[in-house]
Amino acid sequence: MSVLEITGGRPLKGMIRIQGAKNSALPILAASVAAEGVSVIRNCPELTDVETTIKILRHIGCEVWKDEGVLYIDSSRPIRPEIPDMLMSELRSSVIFLGALLARAGEAWISHPGGCELGPRPIDLHIGALRAMGAETDDRGGRLICRARRLEGGRIDLPFPSVGATENAMLAAARADGMTVITNAAREPEIEDLQNYLIAAGVRAAGAGSSVIYICGAGKGRVHGAEHRVISDRIAAATFLSACAGAGGEITIYDTEPKHYTAVLRSLRETGCELETGEGTVRIKSSGRVKAPRPVTTKPYPGFPTDAQPPVMAALLKAEGTTVFVENIFQNRYRHTDELRLMGADIKTEGKTAIICGVKKLTAARVKAADLRGGAALAVAALSAEGVSEITGLKHIDRGYECMERSLEELGAEAVRLEDG
Ligand code: UD1
Description:
Layout: E1 3-7, E2 12-17, H1 22-34, E3 38-42, H2 48-59, E4 63-67, E5 70-74, H3 85-88, H4 97-105, E6 107-111, H5 124-132, E7 136-140, E8 143-147, E9 155-157, H6 163-174, E10 179-183, H7 189-200, E11 204-206, E12 213-216, E13 227-229, H8 234-247, E14 249-254, H9 262-270, E15 274-278, E16 281-286, E17 296-297, H10 309-315, E18 322-326, H11 336-342, E19 346-350, E20 353-357, E21 362-363, E22 366-368, H12 372-383, E23 385-386, E24 388-392, H13 394-400, H14 404-410, E25 414-418
Parallel strand pairs: 2-14, 3-13, 9-10, 17-18, 21-23, 22-24
Antiparallel strand pairs: 1-24, 1-25, 3-5, 4-5, 6-8, 7-8, 10-12, 11-12, 14-16, 15-16, 18-20, 19-20
Helix pairs in contact: 1-2, 1-4, 1-7, 4-6, 5-6, 6-7, 8-10, 8-12, 10-12, 11-12, 12-13
């Protein structure tokens, strides 16, 4: 069992580059299947979720290679539109292959996606969107078969701005006949990044970033491979800023887009931290004695991101006053709170609400990550706890952070990974 040992109690200092966005890279890799030809993807983060996605791409018949940090996907050969359960269950984003395979091959054989540790994660909106374009679905014993002799553009009114359903609809629409209009679409920056990839691949699309997206399908025309640079990861940025807010110190993050996480920056400013945003940079200075901000309520973009809730919470455990969190996106997103209590945090949760009463000190503990962002929260809390914390369950953290210990070390923290065996 691998362990991340973090020695808390030192202020952070230094500069780090923010990795490419996981939540952009994964759908874009799936989109490279809807295209035909070689796609060149820059700034793709090195994560286990990306490795699993590459396994899926290879399984369905793509050639994938890396050269000097750039990822190449050749999807010119015929595609096998089936993904084995084992790969599907490893990551939630595998569901985006549904739209991609349907667009490319007219059918998709998949199972329900994994990554359900945050509570029920239904895909009814994804399926509804694909059906609206003429797909037929058959859901048998956990195996989902989706077929469309012809995908037809149309109007898709999403009842909720689901990120995944918007992405699936965009991919299917890219090769449908005629125009698709997606209303109440998710507005996340990652959706705009996907649209930019599709445009580079020859699809006529507009509107991503707003609630209405227009896609003029290529029909029988060609969608080709494309070159694209993945945007910066706004959740990784929020995580390292939270780490500094909680532990104290002064750090600068670069290769980041502060406009993508204004809601997080607003909350961090309310804690009394000094924040300065520049062109692709954010500098934060914290005394380590933060104060409770106004209630933090997670919402679809541009609201406070659900993914930033755990690390920001971890930065506020010693805050002066009481912080209220309301989690509106996922039912089971407070699993980190049990572990944070082991470090001495005073947290009460009830349904969607978590109430954090700031404590004077946190003490190092042996804790286990139960999900990706919850794991990041444990690292953030460990940095401001007295003593050496031991974090296990690192496979969750590795899904979304490129070598967390190296980043923390670059910021002057003492963080060491002890590999098993
Ligand atoms: C969500 C987050 C996204 C984040 C990602 C990874 C939101 C709105 N989305 O995206 O920012 O990066 O997790 O952690 O914050 N739902 C349905 N039926 C569906 C699809 C979704 O009821 O078919 C519900 C879910 O149960 C959940 C909500 O909609 O309550 C969020 O869904 P969605 O945006 O689709 O989730 P992800 O795409 O996983």
